[in-house]
Amino acid sequence: MSFPDITGAIRASAPQLRGRLSANEPVAPFTWFRVGGPAQVFFAPADEDDLSYFLSRLDPAIPVTVVGLGSNLIVRDGGVPGVVVRLGGKAFADVVVEDQHRLRVGAGVPDMVVARRAAELGIDGLAFLRGIPGAIGGALRMNAGAHGGETKDVLIEARGVARTGEHVILSNEGFGFSYRHSSAPHDVIFTQALLQGRPGDKLAIVAEMDRITAAREASQPIREKTGGSTFKNPPGAKAWQLVDKAGCRGLVVGDAQVSEMHCNFLINRGAATAGDIENLGEEVRRRVRETCGVELEWEIKRIGVGARA
Questions:
Q1: Both 176 and 251 in a single domain?
Q2: What is the CA radius of gyration of the chain?
Q3: What contacts 177, CB < 8 A, 6 or more positions away?
Q4: By CB atoms within 10 Å of each CB, which of 21, 169, 190, 263 scores lowest?
Q5: Is 299 among the residues known to form the active site?
Q6: Does residue 1 lie in a domain region?
């Protein structure tokens, strides 16, 4: 499966581009599920200015999708039309200490790395990030949270680049945060965030992170090919309890399975397709709806098109 190669036209319109541009590059290796088709165009910008230049020169009709660590993502088997942007490399991996117990963090930095760096500095309030298997860019988009903390609790502001190439800064209030959701403009690619911590005891922070790590390892299939929590918790309920009540623990579609350890996790047993995983999720939603009268909402993001004949 492949898309028409449009990289030549893109390079012609942006001759000073410095980042890596490729056609029909597999996206599956960048996801935790390890499934899915190619990106029509894959772009890894050299830095924020390179991203801005690229977007300003890109045909507005070409869709743009951002992929981070791929921990909460299903890429469909037909691949992703348009451009997939991935913020990798040193330009998006900085963690800079600022006054008043603040950290300025690149969007490509894994959440757990931010938590660890904060602990080393004796900065409290960010330990919850240890329990989130993604990067800061994704945390901004979905108000990621765990163990009593959410992104909205610690964000001061974020920098990004709009689809036009314009540099933007968005305050916490501008995100319109709610449970596992932000109302930030969809066309902005976030490049860094300024996070607020508070003074704390280094040993106590490390102990809290160790507790979070132990809790994850004891209750979640983190060593499997998975995508984190599949469904959002409905108001007043736990998604995993509803999935369990509907008899879906261990349910299999193709080579995808509802985890026996934690039934709000789907796993790729080795040869699953993206279609297997998404169809399994939809079957779980159907059974929960019929058994419990509750409509589960996907927390995992699904992008791209289905397999083509």
A1: no
A2: 20
A3: 143, 150, 151, 152, 183
A4: 169
A5: yes
A6: no
Helix (H) / strand (E) containing 84: strand 80-86
Q: Per-residue pLDDT for the chain (309 aa), expressed as one digit of tens each?
A: 789 999 999 999 999 999 999 999 999 999 999 999 999 999 999 999 999 999 999 999 999 999 999 999 999 999 999 999 999 889 999 999 999 999 999 999 999 999 999 999 999 999 999 999 899 999 999 999 988 899 999 999 999 999 999 999 999 999 999 998 999 999 999 999 999 999 999 999 999 999 999 988 898 998 899 998 999 999 999 999 999 999 999 999 999 999 999 999 999 999 999 999 999 999 999 999 999 999 999 999 999 999 875
Q: What are phi and psi of 180, to 5 degrees?
A: 50, 40
Is 180 marked active-site? Answer: yes
Catalytic-role residue among 71, 182, 229, 259? 229
Domain that holds residue 255: 222-303
Among candidate residues 86, 180, 216, 287, the one labeled active-site is 180
Q: For residues 296 and 275, state if they share a domain.
A: yes
- Does a structural domain hold residue 189? yes
Q: Residue 288's domain is classified under what CATH number? A: 3.90.78.10
Kindly state the tokens that stand for 293: 């009268």
pTM, full prediction: 0.93
Q: Which member of 25, 150, 278, 299 is catalytic?
A: 299
Same domain membership, residue 22 and residue 38: yes
| 206 within some domain | yes
